[in-house]
Amino acid sequence: MSTFDLLIKGARVVDAKNHRDEITDVGIKGGEIAAVAPNLAPSEASEVMQAQGLLLLPGLIDSHVHLGISACGFKMVAAAGVTTCLDMSGTSDDLARIAKTNGAAINYGTLEAILPGKNVPTNDPSTEEIAAFVNKALANGSYGVKILGGHFPLTPKANERLVRYCQENGVYIAWHAGSTETGSDLSGVKEAVAAANGGFLHLPHINAYCRGCPEKAAALSIVVLQILEANPNIVTESYLSSRNGSNLVCDENGIPKSAVPRKCLANFGFSPDKKGLVDAILSGRLAVMKDGQDQTILISGKEGADYFLDQNTNVSGSFSGLNPLSSRVLCATAKRGTSQAFTVDALSTDGGCIPRNVTLKAGLELVDLDGLTMLEFVKKACLMPARILNLPTKGHLSVGADADICVADPIAKTPVRVLAGGNTVFENGKIFNGVPTAFTTSKGLSFYSSQGIPVREANPSFEPLNRFN
Questions:
Q1: Could you give the angle at the alpha carbon of 361 between the alpha carbons of 267 and 111, nearest 5°?
Q2: Which of 167, 345, 346, 372 could form a disulfide with 385 if both were Cys (CB 3.0 to 4.6 A apart)?
Q3: Residue 293 CB: number of other CB atoms within 10 A?
Q4: Strand segments (E) across 40-192
Q5: Which residues contact 193 (CB under 8 A, 6 or more apart)?
Q6: What is the percentage of the chain residues whose pLDDT exceeds 90?
Q7: Is the full-model pTM beyond 0.90?
Q8: Could you give the CA distance from residue 182 to residue 122 in angstroms, rounded to a whole number?
């Protein structure tokens, strides 16, 4: 019997937890890391991969994706080097269906969004209605819940009730900042932090609240970073794409149902209605998402406008040039005071099936620019999101850790081979079909078993986040 199922030889191995950045070998056995050492013998392996000149990182962990907008999400994140991700709005039922029919064998969890008029009666649900929503979401396999404040807001008091209920009952909660009284901006950040009252809250895509005129983005970022430093139980991530993503569905009056495209249209000088959406698509400022075979593509101009109208607005889209470079870089690189701990804990994409899965490419570009060291990039893209989600066997290359690996070309800044649990999910441009493994709390295990989806128990930790080593 071979010592290793797979031996990867001669890569530059980067592992933030073990402070490793060196040319060495990695051996995999039984879905786990079996050895990290130089000069491991090829004769001891069933398969040998020569990886000289390549990077070998833990599989990226994306703590903010959207997998349910199209059928391509699982495959798109796998092709981007991601081996574990957290979906932030899709229902577990919808994602289970996609996972079985068009999945890749990565790992995923879900946060179900609270939606007024759909899973709660109004935008001001009572504590009893909140409890019913949360408990149903957990029983249906969700790792936690999310407030979509920028899209489908609750009242400030309802937000406070939901945050308090989750904190008191040990439920993971994320909040896209905003309410019926505030927006996805600095006012929404302040409101969310006040509602958390010193307790746990995941405040996603923190750079998204620093939008606006480019000359104001850096100043807004500094204020937001100061707020985070003063509130260490707020966990955060930011993304490195200039694009956003949003549902473009309009109501019977031709008004986008989501507040986000209305605000984006106004920011770019278009009318906040169906006509404005068409004008933005024709101009190239807005692109419409359309499913391909294994990935979602963006189309604009006349082709995009025609598709948008043919679909009766029932599509999602992405505005370009929305997230200024200054806020993206500041949020990715800022540190807490004089410490080596980052103010924003992790890198994410807010992507998935939205075509902006750029953490590997853009993160390595930041390394080239000396914005991050290679170890810092791996810490933010792999180790810290694993800690945020309390997945102790992921995000690093210790012996016994899950064999989740991204082998990448450092020049092209693209994945060459991606493995999850020792199994190849992507190699040389080819995505391999497979059923992903879900992670969920003890309350959701039976849901995935009934769906025929592999599952592992992972319960949130609300201990202070280890940011320092």
A1: 65
A2: 346
A3: 9
A4: 45-50, 55-58, 60-66, 82-89, 107-114, 144-148, 172-176
A5: 201, 203, 227, 231, 234
A6: 88
A7: yes
A8: 18
Let me know whether 84 and 105 are in one domain: yes
Contacts of 287 (CB under 8 A, 6+ apart): 281, 298, 299, 300, 304, 317, 318, 320
Alpha-carbon distance of 20 to 13, in angstroms, equals 7
Q: State the greatest distance between any 2 C-alpha atoms of the chain, in Å, as a whole number.
A: 69
Q: Is 469 exposed, middle or buried (0-12, 13-18, 19+ CB in 10 A)?
A: exposed
How, if at all, do strands 82-89 and 60-66 pair? parallel
pLDDT tens for 88-128 read 988 999 999 999 999 999 999 999 999 999 999 999 999 99
327: which 2 tokens? 């806020």
Fill in the DSSP letter of residue 398: -
Same domain for 236 and 118? Answer: yes
Residue reference for tokens 């986008």 = 256
Measured CA to CA, the distance from residue 294 to residue 224 in angstroms comes to: 37
- Structurally, the chain folds into a number of domains equal to 3
Q: Which domain holds residue 344?
A: 59-242+323-388
